[in-house]
Amino acid sequence: MKYELKNGWTKDIDKEIVFKFSEGYKDFLTQCKTERESVSEAVRLAEECGFKPLESFDTLKEGDKVYAVNKLRSVMLAVIGSEQLTNGVNIVGAHIDAPRLDLKPNPLYEDGEMAFLKTHYYGGIKKYQWSAIPLALHGVVITKDGETVNIRIGDENDDVTFVITDLLPHLAGEQMKKSASEIIEGEQLNILIGAMPSPDEEKEAVKENILAILNEKYGICEEDFLSAELQIVPAANAKDVGFDRSLIGSYAHDDRVCAYPSLMAILTTEACDKTAVCILTDKEEVGSMGNTGAKSDFMKLVLLEIMDKTGESATELNLLRCLDRSFCLSADVNAAFDPNFPSPYEKRNSGKLNYGVAISKYTGARGKSGSSDASAELMGKIRTLFNQSGVLWHVSELGKVDAGGGGTIAQYVANLGVETVDCGVPILSMHAPFEVASKLDVYMAYKAFHVFFNN
Ligand code: MN
Ligand code: MN
Question: Residue 365 Cα, ligand 2 centroid: separation in angstroms?
């Protein structure tokens, strides 16, 4: 039989269900611009669906729904299955950090009678894309008294906004001769935040005026920047793209476009044989390291806690057995074929908009370097499951051989013994301040993760 793929919209699809799901997703995108905000919103939604903190349970039984927050920046949710954990669990793992500009520890300065904030970019960005667009400031400041001040400025219509200036074309002769990676350099990613001098000051009067405003409005002083996590993100909120409204444009589809469907999949899982686990992790964009990244022991700790509370002996042997018999969909975005830039794609093995979730047997660069390469057996299992459940899917390789490459959390989960494969939503303009995803693919991601948990 001929293997032939068709655009998902040519199939029997309930557009109303697909579009309705995307409304919830757009709300999530608008609400969650940082990993901390994503964790808070995930917890809020989970509690609405009857999930409770893991530490609130002395014992756990089949059907119990739990969550555990890791240092406010990552979260794991689980629905306890009828089988014991040593039979293995079903994991969907997505990440909730996204490329952005972090404020430096000493960010505030004045130059040319204007006040600026210095930044250090986080993740893989094209720096020039961040100039001359409206920007917002999100994050937390810990004051000297240990109080947490939550900052979220620039998303509402009547909020102020911030910007990185760019040179006018009339004077950009030298700049335009530079390579794209240098037309805006790292130390030029400085955020314009004000230009009005304080009448009471002689030196750095604009900066002093900004400090007075920060103190009055937020109760923070200059030294408080030293103990803060402040992130500059695009101010634009998620919007429908196209006359047909079939696409969503937004900052940070990578990887909320998998995080939200995986969250919704576990929140709508009532009873399952194997325990269902959704992990929303941090630091993927910089290599998954640190105590909130996928390389940390957090998932192992939570699995051991669940074992303990379900009455299984929480030994290392049992944990290793559990991981060895587990399956994971590493839920991360993929590159969708872009007809505007066809050359780095290989059409027969490329992700495509509206063809459902994209499965990558392997990622990596050059000779599959840094890839965990899923087995034929695992590909077969997922293929059968998705085909039987009406999940639209296709395979995707990130560009032509030697065109570049990339990685996900798959290799770190696979290192634990878990049978792991990448499965996520193909997007356009990945890592840009405004990325594009298809509503049909977002819904198919939800369906894929839901059938994975419930079979
Ligand atoms: Mn990603
Ligand atoms: Mn990414």
Answer: 15
